[in-house]
Design a protein that fits this description.
Helix content is 30%, strand content 23%. With 188 residues, it is of the alpha+beta class. The strands form two sheets. Strands 1-3-4-5 form a four-stranded antiparallel beta sheet, covered by helices on one side. The relative contact order is 0.15.
Length: 188
């Protein structure tokens, strides 16, 4: 009798796990059915590059030691709580996997590992200012997809980094440049 109960509970747990995986797949399919979607990792409130962040010229990094943040000599977290690594002080931390969808003059960004039917973030075309483009470095290479390119942007004064494939980047920049006349668009 006890064995039947244990097997029944295991079966229910397995069915719930399969239903959860099915729901992830179904949600992704529903997001992509209208087209205009692409894989896009996002890092909100991304740390600025070391030279900007520390308020020093890039040549002064040798005084601290290569690759170390504004913290102590071991490269531990500075006063703001971010650790060292990569060009940004946050290294590979803070990235969220997502799917972005074009919707008129905005991009809707959905987390991959979420059941929410609504976008987590909205990126409005007229508020996006491209700051720099770079390849992943250090821990970012492990945290992001293998062919990712990172685009640092400013959105309402918040530094945002988007990681996407080269093809998705081409489409994103074309979408930015295709703004209606009179809209200020800054694509670096």
């Amino acid at each position: 009798m006890m064995m039947v109960l244990v097997l029944s509970l295991c079966g229910v747990a397995l069915l719930l796990a399969l239903a959860g995986l099915f729901a992830f797949g179904l949600r992704r399919r529903l997001l992509q059915r209208s087209g205009g979607t692409f894989d896009c990792n996002l890092r909100w409130n991304a740390p600025a590059p070391l030279a900007e962040y520390a308020g020093e010229a890039a040549g002064d990094d040798a005084d601290r030691g290569a690759g170390q943040g504004p913290g102590d000599a071991q490269g531990t977290a500075g006063a703001d709580g971010h650790g060292a690594g990569g060009r940004g002080v946050g290294g590979g931390k803070g990235w969220a996997y997502g799917v972005a969808r074009y919707n008129g003059d905005q991009i809707e960004w959905f987390r991959v590992f979420s059941y929410a039917p609504r976008p987590r973030r909205f990126l409005e075309r007229h508020c996006i200012e491209v700051l720099q483009r770079r390849d992943p470095e250090g821990e970012e290479e492990l945290a992001l997809l293998s062919d990712a390119v990172i685009l640092a942007c400013s959105l309402h004064g918040t530094r945002v980094e988007l990681a996407m494939s080269e093809d998705a980047l081409t489409g994103f920049l074309a979408w930015l440049e295709a703004a209606p006349p009179g809209q200020r668009v800054n694509v670096a």
